[in-house]
Amino acid sequence: RKEQMEAMRKGQQTRLAQLKEAQQGFMKDSMEVQTAPMKSMAWTMFMFIVIFTWLRLFVDVVLQGLGNQWIAVPWSSHVFVNSVYVFPSWVLLYSLLALPFGQIVVRVLKYFRFRRRLQAMGVPLRAGPDETA
């Protein structure tokens, strides 16, 4: 911006045109950086909607057709799947099971990736008998 003002004061039209062109390129790059997370969020929301719609249809159609809409959880031997508290029971149960399990999977994957990086760097994974912390 400062260079543009200086070129404008000095009347350097070619320099001003170059700076405006560069500014447009920067604005395009900035817009791409800002829209990239939105695209991934749109895909995530789409997949979320598709999966939960399928789960809802499964619970309503398949389980109801089988007459098996009761589940057992640690605190009760029979919970009706379609009962609604804040969310339907099946959504709450899914969250209760999937979130902790997902965290465990992520941490295990991070551990193995970290071990692989240490091995690639040549760092010993276990301390030798003469090495102490």
Describe how the helices and strands are arranged:
Elements: H1 2-10, H2 13-66, E1 70-73, E2 76-80, H3 89-121
Antiparallel strand pairs: 1-2
Helix pairs in contact: 1-2
Would you give an account of this structure?
This protein has two domains: 1-68; 69-133. By secondary structure, it is mainly alpha-helical. A hairpin with a 2-residue loop joins strand 1 and strand 2. Helix content is 72%, strand content 7%. The protein has helices at 2-10, 13-66, 89-121; strands at residues 70-73, 76-80. The relative contact order is 0.04.
What are the defining features of this structure?
3 helices; two-stranded antiparallel ribbon; 2 domains; 133 residues; mainly alpha
Radius of gyration using CA atoms only: 29 Å
Mean pLDDT figure = 83
The number of distinct structural domains comes to 2
Return residue spans where pLDDT drops below 50 for at least 5 consecutive residues. none
- Output the strand order for the largest sheet: 1-2
Main sheet overview:
2 strands, antiparallel
Give me the secondary-structure category: mainly alpha
User: What is the tally of beta strands?
Assistant: 2
Shape: flat
Rounded to the nearest angstrom, the distance between the terminal CA atoms is 54 Å
Order of helices and strands: HHEEH
Estimated helix fraction:
over 70%
Work out the strand percent.
Answer: 5-15%
What is the number of helices? 3
